[in-house]
Structure formats: C-alpha cells, structure tokens
Amino acid sequence: MTREVHQPTSAQFAAAREAVALHLRPTPTIRLETGRGTLWCKLECLQPTGSFKVRGAIAAVSAAVERRPDVEVVTASAGNHALGVAFAARALGVPATVVLPTTASPVKVTKLKRFPVQLVQHGAEFADAQEYALRLADERGAAFISPYNDANVIAGQSTIGTELLDQVPDIEHLLVPVGGGGLLSGIALALRSARPTVKLIGLQPANYAVMVASLEAGRVVDTAHVETIADGLAGTLEDDSVTFEILRDLGIPVVTLEEEQIRAAVRTAAMEHGLILEGSAAIAIAAAELGLVPFDDGPVAMIATGRNLTATLLTELIDSY
Description:
This protein is an alpha/beta fold. Helices cover 45% and strands 14% of the residues. It folds into 2 domains: 13-51 and 156-319, 3-Layer(aba) Sandwich (Rossmann fold); 54-145, Rossmann fold. It has helices spanning 10-23, 53-67, 80-92, 106-112, 126-140, 151-167, 182-194, 210-217, 242-250, 259-273, 279-289, 311-319, and strands at residues 29-33, 38-42, 73-76, 96-100, 118-121, 143-145, 173-177, 199-205, 254-257, 300-303. The strands form 2 sheets. A 6-stranded mixed β-sheet has the order 1-2-10-7-8-9, sandwiched between helices. Helix 2 (53-67) packs across helix 3 (80-92), helix 2 packs across helix 6 (151-167) and helix 7 (182-194) packs across helix 9 (242-250).
C-alpha cells in the first residue's frame, strides 16, 4: 500500500478539535512537587483507554468515516494506539482490525479483548506488525491508521497542547515522550501558533532511540532494538515519516534516558505522587528529577501519557522502592 502523508491542514486541526470534544472530556492538569520544583502534570492517563492515543484515533477514524461512511479501519500498534482505535471504532460503529506484535504488553492485549475488534498478533516487533497490517488494509480496501505517521492522528494529539494552555497559560517548558513522534509533532504545531515561546523537549528511552538517531543523522535511520520498560515508545520510523520532518524542521530537541532512570520514575510516580504511570509516561518525571529542564525559568509541564502497565511490573518496582 502506497501512502503519502502530509502535515495537518487547518481544516484537519479544526475537525480534530471537534471530534475530540464530542467524544472525550478535557483531562485535568495537577501540580507535582519534585526535588527540583513544581511540575505541572497533564493526566492523559485518565483517558478511557488509559492513554492519550485515543485522541488521535478519534480524529483519524472520524475523518475516515467522513470520507467514506462504510469504511473499515486497520491499524498496527504497540498497544495504546490500538486501544484508541478500538474505542473510536466502537463509538463510531466502524469495523476495525488491530495488529499487535507478539511481544505487546499483556495488559494492553487483555484490554483490547474487551472491544468488538478483530485482534491479530503478528511478528516480534512493531515493524513486522505494521507490514502485516498494511497488507491487510490493501487486501480489504480498508483505511490504514498509523499510530503516528497520519495527519489526522497528529491533529488529534495537538488538542493536548491547546487544552494544556487553557489550564496553565504561562507554561515555559514542556516535557513530551517520543516514539514515532505523533504527540510531539502535534503539540509543537499547535503551540507554534498559540504560544511559540514554549520550549519543548522530547524524551526517548536510550534502548530504543530511533527518533534521536534519525534527527542526528538528518534522515530516518534504524537503531539496535533493546527491550525497554517504556514499551509504548518502542518502534521504527517509516522512511517518509512526516513526524520526523516536523521535528527536524522545527528544531525540537529529543534526549534519551536510561532504563533505571525510567524505572525509578515509575516508582516515584506511584509512591510519592499516587500516580500509576507506565514507563512511557514516567520518563518525563525522570527528566524533571534529573534537571534536564530549568525550573527557575518559568512553569514546567509534562504529559502523563498513559497508565497501561502490568500489575506484576508495578509490584516489582514498588517492592524495590
């Protein structure tokens, strides 16, 4: 299947805001007191699927239905985007197939089984699952919805940035987890218009730093794939990914954090802040605690992107607190 993806248009941003407002309530932003200072935390972990990904999915599925009311959708995901598409498909009455790698988080697979979707697990890595999903979409004449390389998905994620500005208007720094870059791209585009002085920092696990390596190389490259607790940020980039182009052109810095730093942040979130966060979300707390952003420069915020981690892992991390 040949896909040509462009940056979201103003019409797509407007449609995404309308779709998200119709199906989802704004998430709250709370204060976390860290060793470095106050960290404003937007609780996307409270979304009905446990992750921010539902925003982009709602926007993309709504756009697909607008184009063709009898559409079928197919997606590939490490888990959270699949949950978002499943939620959106059920809400809009659209048949959906979601393809996950066989290594996907068990808690996300269990949650997916509660939705009326066709669930397929294929391949050990996200790239394998996506290749299979693209083939299925092509065979069925279905709409493929990428977790990140999709203009409507990016537009949907941008709504987090506009909501956050309503809640913390004077924000100066924003810490944003990065996998394929859909979240950071959407927020960057939204804030470029609404408040361009906000300084964005992307965060990626060192074990799966594809975006970091690509930005350093000036083109999309692959890296060694090592298991990470931040599994929602693990995945390759499509060669023509529009998210890479957006982050490169806007000069958004993306830094890496080590596994033990992320694991410690999951413990800190639970034991000191009462938040259940997966590694992909807690990575922002790690960055704040390590002083990767100056707190004396103005309000610092983060996106608590999701809560979908296994009870076994959470117990293991808390026991080692």
